[in-house]
Amino acid sequence: MGKWRNMKQEIAKNAYDHNFALLVSFSGWLLLLVYLAYLYFAANQDIVSLVLATGESTQAKYSLLILFAPLLSSILGYAVNQRILQYREKFLMANQFKDMAEEELVEIINSLIVGFVNALDAKSHWTKGHSLRVKHYCLMIAEELGLDEESRESLEVAAMLHDIGKIGTYDDILNKTEELTEQEFAQIKKHPGHAVAILMPIKKFHPILNVIKHHHERMDGGGYPDGLSGRYIPLLARVLCVADAYDAITSRRPYKNHMSKTEAVWEIQKKAGSQFDQEVVAALVKVHLKSDFDIVIKDSPDESKVWEKVGALARPDLGKEPNLRPQSQAI
User: Fold this and answer.
1) Number of structural domains, the chain?
2) Is 90 a catalytic residue?
3) For 202-251, how does the pLDDT look when each residue is reduced to its tens digit (9 = 90+)?
């Protein structure tokens, strides 16, 4: 909004400058006319009589043209200038409305993201805050990798929405403590596709659909949903995959206890090159020791900005329990 307000002020200033120039020109013509009239009256002859007396005199015609040219040019210039200013004002208003519409669209998109995350958090208290933590890890890894601002923004939104497809997964499967059956795990593996289907109608989300769809692919081609491998997996999806795995490993689930950050990084390092991108894992190894790596927003994104250590959310009072579900079925 500010840039259009500044442009409007600039246009108003230009209009004042143009009109002032025209006023000076017109005033000069009036002074010339008064002076010539004085000369004619001094000679006891008016302009019409002079023209009639000169007859076909070319000199007289040119004299009249020179006399009235400044007036005609001033009137024409003023008319053209006003029309130009009208068009510029219309252009300004059109762009101002466009800018307002874009700002409102951004607010709507942000509200949608918050709504999606809140809906997913409400589905299972075990995964509450997961999307926010994954977003935080993704951004730190992305910064270490030197990704550009546009990529980081896309990654941020993708991280917030990567598990939205689990809204279509049965609660008893998400909260099951025992090993999943083949049919149940097949349902779990559908959540990236469900996420794409949910977000597809919103055009603003199209650039991140492939990131969300492929964040469970493996470097060796053993992932899902399409079995992509290596560099065929989008880079942002590879970053999201590592950040997602780190949070899943360090968070308590109904089927497993949490690991420490050191154990989690070691577990991920062991699978670098097979499940995870080696370059992304190397970035995780570097950033996980930073003091601000293990912070997470405590409450839902629209309610609080209180920061709290991940370890405090892990409920260590429940004690160490063996993993009841294979790591390959971690969600």
Assistant:
1) 2
2) no
3) 888 999 999 999 999 999 999 999 999 999 999 999 999 999 999 999 98
